[in-house]
Amino acid sequence: MDSGEDLPSRHRQGRERKAPRPLTATKLEEMALAYVARFATSAGKLEAYLARKLQERGWDGEGDGRAAIAAVIARFADLGYVDDAGFARMRSTSLLRRGYGARRIAQDLNAAGIGEAIRSDCTPDESAARRAVLALARRKGLGPYTRGLGEGERLDPALREKQMASLLRAGHAMGVARALLAQTSPDEAEEWAAEAGEAPSQGFWD
Fold first, then answer.
1. How many CB atoms lie within 10 A of CB 40?
2. N or C: which end of the chain has fewer CB within 10 A?
3. Is 97 left (phi over 0), alpha (psi -120 to 50) or beta?
4. Rounded to whole angstroms, how far apart are CA atoms 63 and 111?
C-alpha cells in the first residue's frame, strides 16, 4: 500500500504543464494572426514576438524557422495586417497627445523596428512640438502651470532647472523647453502654442 507521503508529489506532477510542442508553419501563422488581431503592431514587433516564441518552443516545420517568420511577415505586410507607416502615425499621435517630444517619439519608433524614412515622416513640426510640450506642462504642472506660481511670476532657478530636465527627458528640444518655461501664465502659453499655426496635416491633433 502506498504511503501518504507520495501523494503531494503526485499531485504536483499532475498539475505540471506539458512542454509546448515545437512550432510548425501552420502554428506560426496562427500565432501571428492572433497577435495582430489583439495588438496594433509593426513588422519589427511582430518579428520579435515570433522569434521569441521560436526560441522558447523550437521548430518542427519544413526549412528554417527564421525563414518561415520572414515569410509570414512579408505575407502579412502584403495583406495589410501589418503596416509600419500606419503604426508609426498612430503611435506618434498617441505620444504627442501624452506630451512627448520628437526625440522620444523617434526612440520609440526605432525600438519598434520602424525604418528611418518613416520615422522622419512622423517627426512633429513646430506646431505639434509646441502643443505637445504644452500638454506635458499641463499634465505635470510645469512652467506657467506650476502650482502656487502667480501670474507673471518667474520660476526660481533651481525649480526651473528641475523642470527643464523633465522636459528634456520627455524628448523635447532645448529651444521648445526654454520657450515653454519662459511663459508667465497659462493664457500666454496657449497663445505661444497657437502662434505656430494650425495642427499639422499628419492628423496628430485631430
1. 13
2. N
3. alpha
4. 29
d(CA 177, CA 65): 47
Question: What is the total residue count of the chain?
Answer: 206
- Give residue 97's identity as a one-letter amino acid code: R
18, 74, 137, 151 from 205: Cα distances, Å: 49, 31, 17, 28
Q: How many CB atoms lie within 10 A of CB 197?
A: 10
Domain layout of the chain by residue ranges: 21-82, 85-194
The answer for residues whose C-beta is within 8 angstroms of residue 146's C-beta and 6 or more apart is 155, 159, 163
Q: Identify the sign of the CA torsion 56, 58, 61, 62.
A: positive
Q: Could you give the angle at which helices 126-140 and 157-169 cross, rounded to 10 degrees? A: 120
- CA torsion, points 100, 102, 108, 112, in degrees to nearest 10? 140
pTM: 0.81
pLDDT at 203 over 50: no
Handedness of CA 44, 46, 50, 55 (dihedral sign): positive
Q: What is residue 72's predicted lDDT score, i.e. its pLDDT? A: 97
Alpha-carbon distance of 54 to 40, in angstroms, equals 21
